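Field reference: sequence -> structure
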Amino acid sequence: MTWGKTALFFLQLFWTVHHVTAIHRHDIYPYGMFYGDVTLQEGDDETSEVITLTKPMYFYEASFTILYVATNGIISTQDLPMEKQYVDDGFPTDFPVIAPFLADIDTSKGKGSIFYRQTESPTVLKRAEADVRRGFPDATFTPTHAFVATWENVSAYEELTRSSGPSNRINTFQVVLAYNEKDTYALFLYPEDGLQFFGTRPKESYNVEIELPARVGFTRGELSYFFFSRTEGPYYSVTSNEQSVKNLYQKGNIGEPGVWLFHVGNGYSFQNVVPAQHEAVLTKAPPVRDAVFPDEDYTDTDEDEYPIDPELEDPTTTEFLEPEQDSSLLERLNQEAPFGQSPLQPSVSGPGEFPHPDPRNLPPEDVTQPQRPLPKHAILQVYPNRVKDVPPHPSGGQVFSVEEKVNFDSGVIHYSTDNKETCERLQQQCSQNAHCTDYSTGFCCHCNSGFYGNGRHCLPNGAPHRVNGKVRGTVLVGGTAVQLDSIDLHAYIVVGDGRAYTAISEVPEPVGWALMPVAPIGGLFGWLFALELPNSLNGFSITGAEFTRRADVTFYPGNQRLSIVQTATGLDTQNYLNVDTHLQGSVPFIPPGATVQMEPFKDTYQYYPSLISSSSAREFTVVSAENGAETLTFQVKQNITYRDCSHGHRSGLETQELRMERIFVMYVKEERILRYAITNKIGPLGAGEPEPENVNPCYSGNHDCDTTALCVPGEGQLFSCQCATGYSGDGRNCYDVDECAEGLSSCGAHSHCVNLPGSHRCQCESGFEFGFDGRTCQDVDECRDQPCHAQALCSNGPGSFQCQCQPGYHGDGFQCHPQNGRPKTQCEQHRDSLQSGNGGVPPVGGFIPQCDEEGQYRSQQCHGSTGHCWCVDSRGQERAGTRTPPGTPRRNCDEPGRPKTQCEQHRDSLQSENGGVPLVGGFIPQCDEEGQYRSQQCHGSTGHCWCVDSRGQERAGTRTPPGTPRMNCDEPGRPKTQCEQHRDSLQSGNGGVPLVGGFIPQCDEEGQYRSQQCHGSTGHCWCVDSRGQERAGTRTPPGTPRRNCDEPGRPKTQCEQHRDSLQSGNGGVPLLGAFVPECDEEGQYRSQQCHGSTGHCWCVDSRGQERAGTRTPPGTPTINCDEPGRPKTQCEQHRDSLQSGNGGVPLLGAFVPECDEEGQYRSQQCHGSTGHCWCVDSRGQERAGTRTPPGTPRMNCDEPGRSKTQCEQHRDSLQSGNGGVPLLGAFVPECDEEGQYRSQQCHGSTGHCWCVDSRGQERAGTRTPPGTPRTNCDEPGRPKTQCEQHRDSLQSGNGGVPLVGGFIPQCDDEGQYRSQQCHGSTGHCWCVDSRGQERAGTRTPPETPRMNCDEPGRPKTQCEQHRDSLQSGNGGVPPVGAFIPQCDEEGQYRSQQCHGSTGHCWCVDSRGQERAGTRTPPGTPTINCDEPGRPKTQCEQHRDSLQSGNGGVPLVGGFIPQCDEEGQYRSQQCHGSTGHCWCVDSRGQERAGTRTPPGTLRRNCDVPVIVPPTQRPETVCERWRASLMQQYGGQPNSQHYLPQCDSSGEFNPVQCYGDSSYCWCVDRNGREVQGTRSHDAVKPACIPTVAPPTMRPLPRPDVTPPPAGTFLLYAQGQQIGVLPLNGTQMDKQRSSVLLALHGSIVVGIDYDCRERKVYWTDLAGRTINRASLEPGSESEIIINTALTSPEGLAVDVARRRLFWVDSTPDKIETANLDGSDRRVLFQKDLVNPRAIIVDSPTGTLYWTDWNREAPKIESSSVDGQNRRVLVQDGIGLPNALAYDSTTRQVCWADAGTKRLECISPNGTGRRVVHSNLNYPFSMVSFANHYYYTDWRRDGVIALSRDNQSTDEYLPDQRSHLYGITVAPPHCL
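Structure field:
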């Protein structure tokens, strides 16, 4: 033994004997959230939830599977009693305990933490094994599981008094239970300074100063003895007094103070706990931490439990699993290396370095930058490596990619080619947006200016990009393997901001949750298209669109490992990147419904030739209902191999830092979509973080450039916006340049240009393909693939080819048949008819059936355009259930499949009805697994259910309405027979009354048809079969002997049934003159049929169908029907269908087209009845302008003619009517020779005449009745008055005929309403005002004296208006049975009202509202309504408002609350219609968790219910959704937008229109994030901006007083902000929030300077509110009804009125400032009203209407008079409006024209103040400045009137600003 070994041995011996330093805190076993620990709830006496062990553990002799951890320093195998039952008692306890420090411990109020976990970590188990071996050297123990519990910085329970404070003494200790299937060992660890108190005082010490020492040890607890007795079990105590407690950290029993080891369980035999016997005593000797035990393989180091790989610290080293062929490549490369030198071995100059080439030996033009040295453990891989499935493989190192041949002469990788590659030969390898450069060793591609990439692939700078691909592989989740089979991946990248959104669709639920943390999948796209900081390049600029990325992700603490291989295969035809992803390995299980949060992160990328690598570790937090918040980690090692061009200059990059600033992951269970969203920037390593105010907006993302624009940074905060290549505009608004339309493409001959976003591509025409250079289109020789039939010749031509059958064969060249062969089959006819199409051209994209060699339908058919395939039968009919969409496996059509049952056919026919879309609300039958009708059927829309028989026919008497118990359809009970149903349906008739004279079938006792039926009205009798069908030849007329119907007879044939059904007609009487077919002796159709009434004859087939071209008119020779004939043409079918009419009789007077000898339409057609003639085209369609009336020369139909005018079309459409016959008595306009409307029109039937304009519209006041002089229509006339328009609209009625019995107003000679009006039909008369409105109290019934309408009268009262509105009803007739209020002589409501129809009576107040509790039913004494009564309570008002409903009738099925005798809500409420019951509070609000469904036990509402603390008001999203739902009438269609809210009521990050794929991202206020709109099948991934919900109470919405002086008030979503003005300058430093309004969307805002109150509209709450500016003032709602979308708002300070616009119902309203006296000013001629202002001094109102079709600015007086359009030209989106009191002009800011303009109120003096705005929303004028809110900048912009100065204020919270107003200290 050498001296060194001897010294080492004595050093180890010294360690063994004298190592007496106590264990340090960092030396105990690793613990905490980082290692997967669970934290015990804070408190004085807490116990963990049950911990189920993954493997049973022996404690003493017994096996246990559960553990509990308690606050008071113990672990137990059973649930613990309350602490007072054991914490102050001695040892042992009466239940099993492992006690490292049993005392009264308290962790409440943050006084320490308690952690625990199960683990199978090899590091922990190895250390525990070594510790056991130190204490029990002879034991052979290998643990398989461990349990670690740690009490960190916990305190003793103390009762604080005035004289004593907390002691601040804390303890830290730990227990480790290591076990296997046989033994259990316990380690107690007490670190140095870990015990600062040694006992605790009992809680019930009664002021006696006593302290109980902590108890340490083990107890088995009480054991059962015999059957009913218990005895104390074994126990072991370590401590007995305070000193023994102190010994815990001063001594130990395995050679180290503070560490105690015990053998505590065995599965074979165990009496009591056995301690280790290697004692150690604490001294002050220094520790020797690195000593090693000679005989042990374990080194006690301070290694972490889940160590990060040491290689992680060296980013040049990455461990990967590679395919075996890579290893063989490595061997070949080693063999090729020079002797004594390995290409993989670093030189001695430094780790991983390679000797650099001498640049002096290179040609001058090729002096390149030295190549980066390769990292150690590198494996070289030939590019590209098309890896589809990566098997497990040994770890070895990173992967590099090189092209072609590789030589190693000095360790440097370089290219060596046999033939030099030049641009002339291979420039087609470059992108069309790149140029090629030759170098001495080869060529390289470089992107042109305005593009970025590696030259092989180039994309336009700044343009958004998309990525498409597939994800496949196998992922193990919690032991379950989930296969991913080519599911879709889509990514959308806003390149200008570095935002990458990734979505993977159809992800199964288990793996969808588990893959949420695997953000590196989408992180690739973030790196590829990261926002480039100065002196940096993103990934695509280096790799282009072809590369392979491998990532190895290892999760801790579970050590799951996932391999990710992502292969980019280039750009597709849309210029989008294709990336396929392969996943293999395992991931941790994440509970369903959990969320994953990831913090911002930085990653360092190392760059080498053809290789990029990085390695990092990250944390993520999983928040779930089951486990709360858990923080886990994963380690990512990745490399990216790509095609590097070594011939030219390199970028010189060595390292870069990728900053992932925002990371969002989400799995949407309902859509099965996994989403990642990451915001990325890339820059130099170690550049540091500049101060936010110093960051250029281009890099901070705070610029306002368009998403298709590039932000170009300038000096300091300056920047400019430059539209991306392929886009044009000012940078803030960019539009795609259509290179194809503008002639900017480079497409050559035989190609056409296809425009792409930001670019274009050239596409060869059909029959051409790109040649070798990839740019020139060359003809495709289709004949080389032999597409024609074997008996056909193929001829190639430019862009096409032709197949022609050889002589002796016929066909289309694709199918050739011998001449004189078989006739065409049905399939061939079908195919050829579709191929010949219209004019011999097959329809583009149409389906063409495929026939086999025999001409039969191929069993499988496919649609070439759509890709769908299906199986067909021998007739070419699709077999049900065999259709497969494109891209899915096709059915095997040769396998037999059962035919569809009747139920399935019934169901499918209804489901496929309208273009494959089932009728909404229609009944769809339900079929069972065998395809039979389910015995019970229910209508999903109506809720009715019924029983059916095997044929799906409803069984009589089984139908139940919704909400009632359903029938048991399996119980026997004879349903109605067919005869009974037939009989009953006819007997019930219409409204239960049978049709008079109708035939009613007779049924026998069994419900079957009687064999003989007779018609009671006609006397005919006949025999019927079992189905009630008449048996042929058995009918007897009345008065003749009847047939014996019991004699058997053969069944009727189809012809006999047809004949008999026509003969029986309606009710047994045949239709006179109808065609009745003739049958032969066998009952078959005679081959020739003739119509007895018309004399026509024709031939028919065996089914009785007329054979085309065989019809002969009467008196002509008939056709020989036994000869075959050609099929009918379209004209012949048209003609014959009209000639056959109804029952074979043509419609009298109907037009019947004429066909020539070939069956084509004759070019001229004439109507035999009317005499009109016209020209038609080949399809029989009338040619415009060719119709001539009878007696006039006909057109030459072979000459072309002009198209019909509007008048001619109008006239001809009415003349053609139904079947070419005009409607009798209808008005037909007259046209002149030019086809224009004659100026005077007359109605031939009524005799009225009138003048019309050039469009044929009647000119007001020109109509004259028959017999009066007509108006001269060539003279101009005054326009019609309101009365004349009213009168004429009623007189014109339908077709110019007034409604019979309708009221027609009478006008005087001036066109004004006569003061007295009378109804000609009813005789009522009344007085009207100038608008024709009836004056209250003036109506007189017939036969009574009329009022003198020229006398003035008082206005109608509310009661009279109410009464008269109901009495006038529809057309002056009150609705039958409606309640009509009674008014007294003064027009006031009588105090008692009674309903004449129902007999109910009640008392009302002065407004006519029913007084609660006064209603009496009919027949009972009425209330004395003159006695005073208490006011209605809230419940009574609620109840009565619902009961009164519409016209006093409650809503059917609506909920009516129940009130008690005091008028208060009863504590339990039930819905009479639905049966649900629930408890309510005193306000009638439902108490959470008390609702019970019908048929279940109701809650006891007098017992208090614990209301969960998550009660919250409706959020903005929920209110908005409810508002729109109400607007859509509760039934939004698929195109309506409804906000999507999450479980917390916040906006989902992704919003979509209905069920479409038109989606976008929104911010926390629901506002769209620019540039995120997508119309893809996969929705965009979006970053949420709402933090997880907290339980903090919401702030009170009270006023924070603003500063003194003048200030601006602006609306910003859920708050109102204050911006003080210093003169006219915005004082941004003193800005503040006036009101925080959670759940609101504040839009319009104005200020009342007289009372110092602010008024605003709330779009979310649909309310108008106000608040005083006094400190602490709270907001109040002044209007909360009948508002939908309140926007602009204005206060008239002088008149104390409020005006606002409602943009959904499109109206303007006004009210007093307290909300009273509300009325509508305008509700017509408004489309999108937005802003509104009032000029109080002049009493003028102004508003904007941004109707996109016709925007305008209008004005009126404040009382709604003198409405006029002020501006309507040269405006786009006039959002903002202000009145400049200095210049006395109206000014507006237009978001469409980007201009601020002003105009005088009289419409003169229009001028442009500013012409370069962004997106203004609202504006206010003050002094010589305009202040407006801007949606592009999300701030307030200030402009001077002279346009000399501008300023802006951007709030810290960036979101859209809405209304703005100025608040001066006093009224100006």
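Note: The chain has a mean pLDDT of 80.
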